[in-house]
């Protein structure tokens, strides 16, 4: 599970670089500090679900864009939804409202 959380964090950096956005720009748009974003991208800090949602919104991407491809068929299977819940539970500061918002966005 830790590997999946790390994958998500690394994908944030990849998607940011693809879009040509600086850490400072993305952090500002997502409402977090640049240091916090750097720690997330390097896997030093596990973000809250709401922070991941804010980062995705700031880059105009979906949570599916940062999920491992093997886990994001469309529509989401029950096993993938269980995986998403497990990953989110591994993150700090998870509340069920955030989980339901995320799962709704995933389909």
Task: Give a short synopsis of this structure.
With 107 residues, this protein is mostly helical. The chain is built from 6 helices and no strands.
Please provide a written account of the structure.
The chain is mainly α and 107 residues long. The chain has a single domain (2-106), classed as 434 Repressor (Amino-terminal Domain). It is 64% helix and 0% strand. It has helices spanning 2-19, 23-30, 34-41, 49-59, 78-90, 96-106. The two termini are 22 Å apart.
Blueprint of the fold:
Blueprint (H helix, E strand, L loop, with lengths): L1 H18 L3 H8 L3 H8 L7 H11 L18 H13 L5 H11 L1
Helix pairs in contact: 2-3, 2-4
Order of helices and strands: HHHHHH
Number-wise, the strands total: 0
Can you name the CATH architecture? Orthogonal Bundle
CATH topology: 434 Repressor (Amino-terminal Domain)
Q: Compute the number of structural domains.
A: 1
Structural class by SSE content: mainly alpha
Query: What is the helix content?
Result: 55-70%
Radius of gyration: 13 Å
Which range does the strand content fall in?
Answer: under 5%
Q: Whole-Å distance between the termini?
A: 22 Å
In CATH, the homologous superfamily goes by the name: lambda repressor-like DNA-binding domains
- Overall pLDDT score: 81
Low-confidence stretches: none
CATH class: Mainly Alpha
Shape: globular
Number of helices: 6
Q: Largest sheet at a glance?
A: none
Summarize this structure as a short list of keywords or feature phrases.
6 helices; 434 Repressor (Amino-terminal Domain); globular; mainly alpha; 0% strand; 107 residues
